[in-house]
Every structure is written in structure tokens, then in C-alpha cells.
Amino acid sequence: MLAVIKSLTKSLRVRVLHPHIPVDDYVDIERGLAEGSALSSRLYAIFLGSLLRKLRENFPTAQCTGVQWIGALAYVEDLCLCADSAAELNKMITVAQHWAEDYRAKINYGAGKS
Description:
alpha+beta, 2 domains, two-stranded antiparallel sheet, 4 strands, elongated
């Protein structure tokens, strides 16, 4: 399976549709997947799974529902952390930041993110 995924992501070339770019001009994608790729969301879910497991292991009582563990809600590239206190939330953010550093991911804390 890994070989198939690698073959689908190797040597990607895409054409940029823009009035000021020639029709026969292509761009090489050297890392990642093309925008809108059918594999994008699935591979990201696998990638993000390790963070969700780490949060669950470190914060087993965090929950939004009161019924089962929901310490984090994830949809595509968005993540919402659910904590019982501000102190616990800060610890969860620290765990997420360390995970991001380990996996060379970037967490966007910028404006418009809440």
C-alpha cells in the first residue's frame, strides 16, 4: 500500500490555469499532493491520528460530551482542543506543539483562528 501511495505522489506535474501563464507551462510538485487530490484528506487523517492518540494518552479525562473521550475535534486541517480548565488546555497546546515540531508540521495560531 505504501508503494502505491508513493507512486501516486512522486513526480507530480500540474498545469496552472491563469490568463497570464502559458497553457503549456507546468509546475513540478516536489513535496505533498496536488490541491484537491483524493488522497489528501485520507493521508492527513492518518498523519493527524498520531496527535489525537498522544492527546488521548496524556489527557484521558478531557471531554466535551461528558460521555466519552473527546479531547479534540478534528475536521480536515482544523483542530479544536477540549479541556476541563485553562491549565489543562495550555498543557494540551504544549503537547500539540511538541508533536508539530517532531513531525515538522506548523500550527497556525494567527488571526482568524480560534
